[in-house]
Amino acid sequence: MTTHLPRDEQDASAIIRDASEKGVLLSLSGQNTKAEMGRPNQTDASISSVALTGITLYEPAEMVISAKSGTPVSEVMRTLAEKGQELPFEPMDYRPLLGTKAEPTIGSVAAMNLSGPRRITAGAARDSLIGVRFVNGRGEAVKSGGRVMKNVTGLDLVKLMAGSWGTLGFITEVTFKVLPKQERMVTLVLRGLKDDRAVEALSQALGSPYDVTGAAHIPARNRQGASTLIRLEGFSVSVDYRLGELRRLLKPFGGSTDILEGRGAEAVWQSLRDATLLTDSADRAIWRVSTAPTKGAEFTKRVTQALDAQWFYDWGGGLIWISAPVDGDAGASVLRETTQALGGHATLVRAPAETRSAVDVFEPQSDTLMTLTKGIKASFDPAGILNPGRMYAGV
């Protein structure tokens, strides 16, 4: 398969325009660290952003950074760290789950709308993405947004591109709003709570005025007791005060409490961000479920009545990572039935290609939404050459 490596946006436009005219189906990628996600698609050639690298704008005083899409995420984060800043949405790294080794790119962060535990307060990647440049399926270069939020008017293509998985355009450059790096991070750990009680505690913490930036629960497993984790960040004096108030607020939940800080705490939140708690068995399917936090415990209860599942919660119970046996449909029928009953979305993150071809990887859409999805795809990519079928069959 031919792999195109455009050196600039003009190259990318020419490649995609030629492919559109000839009906050549293109697979879009960065460093291919997430190539095993989504539906397998049959394409004739690929186009990669690996040659589109470099930070094109960084103004620490304005808290804005722009980079070409193939720029490694690590380079962006290192540049920001030198000025005491960071990407607020804590982008997830899928390499531990998928077993890949290359460097994730900043373009993929936008294309897949990646985020981590801090999403509950900072939002996802799309909420910090304020500008994007891309080439659509006609080979036309498109610029949307800018360096400030108020530049986004009319049809918000920035938000539309975020999470489109390369099905609407080949991203060439992104602009993100950034934030100062927090001075201190402390995690309050409640021990021994059952899932429903833990979610209740997380809900109280998140509903308090104490600016919680992480709220997760790890059920008892492999002789380890359950841990409910609540993260606070900010200036040290503020963190101390809020920590004391949270301990008083959550005292009725009983059990023992611990305080995690430093590298140990950072490692815990990284394992939650990257879902490495579920990587001890490489032959299991992994699902990512979004639902109402109040439904989280009931969701896993119903799933585990039918499946040999392992799980943990993030986002106060609203995000559930679930591993299931890869046999049959990898638990798809059980999870889809549960999302229909309780509400939510289930995405198959890791499974063999044959499984991802046979089941819906993303939550199935209603006829109305699918009509809208197909219409948007046709307007951006009328020949249907960009990542065809990556999200939904035939789209």
TrEMBL record:
Residue ranges constituting the FAD-binding PCMH-type domain according to the UniProt record: 1-181
Pfam families from the UniProt entry: FAD_binding_4
PROSITE patterns, sorted: FAD_PCMH
MF terms (GO), sorted A to Z: catalytic activity; FAD binding
Origin: domain of life: Bacteria
Keywords: FAD, Flavoprotein
PANTHER family, sorted: D-LACTATE DEHYDROGENASE, GLYCOLATE OXIDASE SUBUNIT GLCE
Name under which the protein is recorded: FAD-binding protein
The species this protein was found in: Microvirga makkahensis
Species classification: Bacteria, Pseudomonadati, Pseudomonadota, Alphaproteobacteria, Hyphomicrobiales
